[in-house]
Write a structure and sequence with these properties.
Layout: H1 3-20, H2 23-27, H3 82-85, E1 101-106, E2 115-119, E3 123-127, E4 145-146, E5 156-157, E6 162-165, E7 172-175, E8 185-188, E9 194-197, E10 207-210, E11 219-221, E12 233-236, E13 242-245, E14 252-255, E15 267-268, H4 270-274, E16 286-289, E17 295-299, E18 302-307, E19 312-316, E20 332-335, E21 338-339, E22 351-355, H5 362-366, E23 377-382, E24 391-394, E25 403-406, E26 412-415, E27 418-421, E28 428-431, E29 436-438, E30 448-450, E31 462-466, E32 472-476, E33 496-500, E34 514-516, E35 530-536, E36 547-553, E37 556-558, E38 561-563, E39 566-570, E40 572-578, E41 581-587, E42 598-606, E43 609-610, E44 614-618
Parallel strand pairs: 21-39
Antiparallel strand pairs: 1-33, 2-3, 2-37, 3-6, 4-5, 6-7, 8-9, 9-10, 10-11, 12-13, 13-14, 14-15, 16-17, 17-18, 18-19, 20-22, 22-23, 23-24, 25-26, 26-29, 27-28, 29-30, 31-32, 32-33, 34-35, 35-41, 36-39, 36-42, 37-38, 40-41, 42-43, 42-44
């Protein structure tokens, strides 16, 4: 096409934009509903037919009867493909000390953990989507669900798509989800219930609740939202409410309504429309509650400070160049620990870090089986400064669709994901098997440290979570359109691992502090009030300067997005030695903007080694 015809086409496009607002973008199909098969293309190798695995079902040896757990055996796998063997393993940095270790907690979780949350009754909740068909865990025959997508009306789906996982024993309990939770969002409420929102098809406007008990099951409130919430982000607010941002073709936000209520309309948020593109690189936006009560909101490559009360942007932040950071670009991000030890300066300055991601064209290139290298940069911004700007440094390796967790020490763990491609079924290559420790308090350069590598690829739809014993639970991974265990590059992953960070190595853990949970007040901690408890050490005595107290809000994790994760370092106001025991008094956070109401894991960290965490309610 010559320059004159090209100019004419562009002129027509601009005319359409001026006359109809969205017409210009409709040409590029940005705002029109996209079929789910867009994300199936590589998984189906060019076809869009879903096919269930052909392996024969077998009962898991030693499992309870089908009416109880219904666990079936993992079908046999085949030889590893060339793509599966092309992994990234970094040399562990043993010069920096211990590098941690991996163990397998379970060979079969029954359900591949696309979503995961740790709850206060000693269990982790894992669930995926009904879109992928059968799992490896049966529901009891008298408790099946009607499959609304089946060709024949009234067809029953007797496979569980959610389980309660005992991370200490590997025990499983099937949970029944009625609607499709594919790529949904969630958070824990003030009483420790998991409040879970959105999804796909019949689940896109649903709010679900699961209580922290051994007999609880999902309760669902259909038609709660005005718009579908698929690939959205859910945030806890200081008043205990939840707000949900975005989702596919949802350029808006909504508050989660109370049970039995529903929203008539959503609130428009132009930023979400402005940051979308032909690959929708602004899904699962990063959102953090700030000490001011405002929200940090990041979509694609732009970020703002947003006042949800007045529904206005109070500050536009510098653009983070280099590529896309949100799904399907899928970087890792968190709010850095809030240090409350210097009470005289008021609220701590909040900092956000974003690491990795993908070039903006990664998804479109992936449709043609071209997998671009993931982004290697790690950027952080101090939001307390008037001249806030992104400061970048490089990770040891590029990483996309990884997880970023805050450890009880305040260091970050970067794990899982891939070095090429982006999120989407079949869109990633080169699994990164090596976790990296990021120490935000250190100067640039030595902040990153490679740790012990896993042997299991954790690609698309994998998750992880910090446990009360300060280890990390790692599960899931399914880059296929069904539960496929052979004949694919990356078989569906149902093994569950536990990573023990370096601070739990044999030498370091010899003087691990023991937090006396019974010494904590039954009513928990009140905002702005002192909290007194005891801890002990088994060997070497410690001084006040050796000790810090942290409290951690466990996140809801999916697609590399750990929603509502935050860690606070508390101010110690009294430290009394009583033999090998110590009585410590700390100040609780002053306000819910620092720590929204709910259950937190309280840790004592002595000489860099954390205790077992104890659940404490903040009110």
């Amino acid at each position: 096409m010559g320059s004159l015809p090209r100019a004419a086409v562009f002129a027509v496009a601009l005319l359409l934009l001026a006359s109809s607002g969205e017409a210009f973008f409709e040409i590029f199909n940005i705002f029109r509903a996209r079929p789910e098969t867009d994300y199936f293309q590589n998984a189906f190798e060019g076809t869009h037919e879903q096919t269930a695995p052909t392996q024969t079902e077998q009962e898991e040896k030693g499992a309870a009867p089908g009416a109880a757990t219904g666990l079936t055996r993992v079908p046999p796998g085949g030889p590893a493909s060339k793509a599966a063997q092309d992994t990234i393993v970094l040399a562990a940095d043993k010069d920096g000390g211990p590098v941690g270790s991996w163990t397998i907690v379970s060979e079969n979780s029954g359900v591949s953990a696309m979503h995961m949350a740790v709850m206060r009754h000693g269990k982790a909740v894992m669930f995926d989507t009904s879109t992928t068909g059968r799992s490896l865990m049966r529901l009891p025959q008298d408790n099946c669900r009607i499959d609304p997508r089946a060709k024949e009306e009234g067809t029953m789906d007797c496979w569980a798509h959610s389980v309660e996982f005992d991370y200490n024993t590997g025990g499983l309990r099937p949970l029944k989800i009625l609607t499709d939770t594919w790529c949904s969002s969630g958070a824990l409420d003030a009483d420790g219930n998991l409040v879970q929102t959105g999804g796909y098809f019949d689940g896109e406007k649903v709010v679900r609740t699961l209580g922290p008990c051994d007999t609880c099951d999902w309760l669902e409130q259909p038609n709660s939202f005005a718009e579908g919430r698929w690939y959205a982000t859910q945030v806890v607010l200081p008043d205990g409410r939840f707000i949900v941002f975005g989702g596919r073709r949802a350029f808006s936000y909504e508050y989660v309504p109370w049970p039995g209520k529903s929203n008539d309309k959503a609130v428009r948020l132009p930023l979400l429309r402005e940051t979308t593109d032909d690959a929708e690189n602004n899904l699962y936006p990063f959102v953090n509650l700030l000490p001011s009560g405002n929200l940090f909101l990041f979509a694609n490559d732009r970020s703002v400070i947003f006042d949800h009360k007045s529904s206005r942007i109070v500050r536009e932040l510098p653009k983070l160049d280099g590529g896309s950071r949100n799904y399907p670009g899928s970087a890792m991000s968190t709010l850095l620990p809030l240090d409350l030890r210097n009470a005289s300066v008021g609220d701590p300055e909040p900092e956000v870090v974003i690491c990795g991601g993908a070039p903006k064209k990664s998804f479109r290139k992936g449709e043609n089986n071209t997998f671009l290298p993931a982004l290697r940069d790690c950027a952080r911004i101090n939001l307390g400064r008037p001249d806030a700007r992104w400061e970048k440094e490089d990770m040891p390796v590029g990483r996309v669709m990884g997880d970023m967790l805050i450890l009880p020490t305040g260091d970050l763990l970067l794990l899982s994901g891939a070095a090429k491609g982006c999120s989407g079924w079949g869109f990633g290559r080169q699994p990164v098997l090596t976790p990296v420790l990021y120490s935000p308090r250190k100067a640039q350069g030595p902040r990153f440290r490679a740790l012990a590598s896993s042997t299991i690829a954790r690609m698309y739809h994998s998750t992880s979570a910090v446990l009360p014993d300060a280890t990390v639970l790692v599960a899931g991974g399914n880059t296929n359109a069904a539960y496929n265990f052979s004949g694919v590059d990356f078989p569906t992953e149902v093994r569950v691992e536990r990573f023990s960070p370096p601070y739990l190595s044999e030498g370091a853990a010899g003087n691990r502090p023991v937090l006396d949970a019974a010494s904590l007040p039954a009513e928990g901690m009140q905002y702005g009030s002192p909290l007194t408890f005891r801890f002990s050490v088994p060997a070497e005595p410690v001084a006040e300067a050796d000790v810090k107290t942290t409290m951690y809000a466990p996140p809801f994790t999916t697609h590399g997005c750990s929603m509502n994760q935050r860690l606070l370092i508390l101010r110690v106001t009294a430290f009394v030695e009583e033999g090998r025991s110590y009585r410590v008094t700390v100040d609780a956070p002053r306000k819910p903007e620092l720590a929204p109401r709910g259950y937190y894991l309280l840790f004592v960290v002595a000489k860099g080694v954390p205790s077992m965490g104890a659940w404490v309610k903040v009110r």
